[in-house]
Amino acid sequence: MAAYFFKRVLYGIPVLFVVATLTFFIMRWAPGGPFDTEKKLPPEIVANIEAKYHLDQPAVVQYLLYIKGLASGDLGPSYKYIGRDVSDIISDTFPVSVVLGLSALMVVVFVGIPAGMASAYWQGSPVDRGVVFAATLGISVPSFVLGTVLIWGLSHQLHWFPPALWEGPKHIILPAIALGAPFAGYIARLTRSAILETLSADYVRTARAKGLSEPVILFKHVLKNSMSPVVSVLGPLTAGLVTGSFVVEFIFSIPGMGRFFITAVTNRDYPLIMGVTLVYSVLIVLANIVVDMIYAWLDPRVSV
């Protein structure tokens, strides 16, 4: 298994290389530049700034310089956060985004999967209709709307949770719910469909005919054989939760990586955009590797 993991990591390196190359040249080909929106500066100062960051060089030369720095672990300086390297910004903000993303993932897993199981097992019952309604509502309501409602209701009206900032465990709950609820609804619907299909399988009827208890049938035979589509979604979803929480981070004033990514895009901060994109790509590659390993555990017919 360890050999498979490292082999897949090696396969992921060309993927990261392609992502870095495409991102780099797309940014350079797009109209405008990182210093176009600044206050009008004398041409001599603009020339000095561009020379400092090698922006006066052809795009290919800039690319080779970036790849050379990347090979040595240097993501370059930020154009907008003077005196700070991209690696420093990511190392300061990434742990916050990871904690928020994993907390939201717990909401997705521990709410979405049990809700989907209950909905499928009691198909057609009030429980089923309630779960389907809640899941549809969760999918339909955007995170920024849900976050605003949670702040108004649970913070300002009931005073149960702090409305913003990142100063302790109580500050994690509301943003984790706002970020994870839409995905929990999707996972609940996906789990429901997968379990309904498995419940109608012949081996489940055989297990019931043998007199096995319903909990044993549901958790030992049905759940494990229904998790493949759910696991395939949870892999990239985890990476998306960690790096795609910029709207929730903005609403709750959380000092995560997403806030810097927004400002990097609006300010055309090339090195910071590249750094965040590469972090996201690494997470996607690792998530897919973990998903494949879980596949092998769920279904021994899948070899790794």
From TrEMBL:
Gene3D superfamilies, per the entry:
MetI-like
Q: Where is the ABC transmembrane type-1 domain?
A: 94-295
Q: Which InterPro entries match?
A: BPD_transp_1_N, MetI-like, MetI-like_sf
Where the protein is mainly located, per its record? membrane
What does UniProt give as GO cellular component? plasma membrane
Q: Where in the cell is it found?
A: Cell membrane
Task: Write down what this protein is called.
Answer: ABC transporter permease
Species of provenance: Candidatus Nitrohelix vancouverensis
